[in-house]
């Protein structure tokens, strides 16, 4: 076993008991721990703070530095909550999960309507709110089998742990490279396939648009697959009414993808996410390098 692999192995098995201990903490202690992580991450380490601040300044050029710094601090508090809430999935009960992450008015009705019509759907969402808990709640309450498209982690031990957490309540995962093949294989099943559509594609696999006032590449995959299979697309937003609680709101984005023009679906979900971020910027994932590529010159 290479030295690096040995180190990964050792780190994982040292961390694992602490991860389980965190997951067992009652919510008041869980969020007290989150505040300590925030103090370390934001004030001491400054994890990706330059990236976050630059992203915020570019996205909100009319906001003052005081406003930008306020959003930045609120984002790091949310990020730390998200981090420890993900670990909470290891031991949380179904009842508690549904108390802390729930459907807004009419949203589950939309999925029930699609199920009654025996229509599988495509879900599109962003890194907004708590997408990990949203998957749990969907799998517990909806008739559709939920599949989530994901990138396997480089560390196989932590990848296996994340896989265990994400599938604990019945969700199934599809590696991104196998998306279309798996969806075809499951086409006779009533299901919902979730695409997190604000990840960063390479220049040669992107639809280019303007997002938060900046040139931004968007994965073609959601649009191309939806049009090929002609599955209704439902946009899911995950709001945060208060700390530790998330409300899932769903709306029909496109009922007949096959009848849309090129780029229309990508614009639809990008514009919807943009509206959500403008309304609640602190609960979007500002720490990823969303704008690292430049639009190709044609």
Describe the model.
- This protein is of the alpha/beta class and 298 residues long.
- It has one domain.
- The protein is built from 11 helices and 9 strands.
- It has a 7-stranded mixed β-sheet with strand order 1-9-8-2-5-3-4, sandwiched between helices. A two-stranded antiparallel sheet has the order 6-7.
- The radius of gyration is 19 Å and the shape is globular.
N-end to C-end Cα span:
48 Å
How many beta strands in the DSSP annotation?
Answer: 9
Q: Strand percentage, roughly? A: 15-25%
Task: Please list the strands of the largest sheet in the order they lie side by side.
Answer: 1-9-8-2-5-3-4
Structural class: alpha/beta
Q: What is the residue-averaged pLDDT?
A: 94
Query: What's the helical proportion of residues?
Result: 40-55%
| Poorly predicted segments | none
Radius of gyration: 19 Å
Q: How many structural domains are formed by the residues?
A: 1
- Number of contiguous helices: 11
Which helices and strands occur, and which strands form pairs?
Blueprint: H1 3-24, H2 27-45, H3 49-59, H4 65-88, H5 94-100, E1 101-103, H6 107-116, E2 121-125, H7 131-141, E3 145-150, H8 156-167, E4 172-175, H9 179-185, E5 191-196, E6 206-211, E7 214-219, H10 221-229, E8 233-242, E9 245-254, H11 264-279
Parallel strand pairs: 1-9, 2-5, 2-8, 3-4, 3-5
Antiparallel strand pairs: 6-7, 8-9
Descriptive tags:
single chain, 298 residues, alpha/beta, seven-stranded mixed sheet, two-stranded antiparallel ribbon, 9 strands, 19% strand
């Amino acid at each position: 076993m290479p030295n690096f692999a040995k180190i990964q192995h050792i780190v994982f098995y040292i961390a694992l008991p602490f991860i389980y201990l965190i997951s067992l903490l009652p919510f008041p202690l869980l969020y007290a721990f989150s505040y300590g992580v925030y103090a370390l991450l934001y004030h001491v380490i400054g994890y990706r703070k330059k990236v976050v601040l630059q992203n915020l300044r570019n996205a909100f050029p009319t906001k003052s530095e005081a406003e930008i710094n306020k959003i930045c601090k609120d984002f790091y508090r949310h990020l730390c909550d998200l981090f420890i809430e993900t670990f909470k999935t290891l031991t949380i009960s179904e009842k508690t999960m549904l108390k802390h992450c729930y459907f807004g008015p009419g949203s589950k009705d939309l999925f029930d309507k699609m199920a009654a019509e025996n229509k599988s759907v495509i879900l599109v969402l962003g890194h907004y709110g708590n997408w990990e808990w949203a998957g749990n709640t969907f799998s517990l309450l909806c008739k559709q089998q939920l599949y989530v498209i994901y990138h396997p982690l480089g560390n196989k031990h932590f990848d296996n742990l994340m896989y265990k957490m994400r599938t604990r309540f019945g969700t199934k995962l599809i590696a991104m490279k196998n998306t279309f093949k798996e969806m075809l294989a499951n086409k006779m099943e009533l299901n919902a396939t979730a695409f997190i559509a604000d990840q960063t594609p390479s220049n040669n696999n992107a639809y280019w648009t303007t997002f938060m006032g900046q040139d931004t590449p968007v994965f073609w995959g959601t649009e191309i697959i939806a049009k090929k299979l002609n599955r209704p697309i439902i946009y899911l937003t995950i709001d945060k009414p208060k700390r530790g609680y998330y409300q899932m709101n769903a709306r029909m984005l496109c009922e007949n993808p096959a009848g849309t023009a090129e780029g229309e679906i990508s614009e639809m979900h990008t514009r919807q996410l943009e509206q959500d971020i403008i309304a609640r910027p602190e609960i979007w994932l500002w720490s990823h390098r969303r704008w690292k590529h430049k639009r190709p010159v044609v």
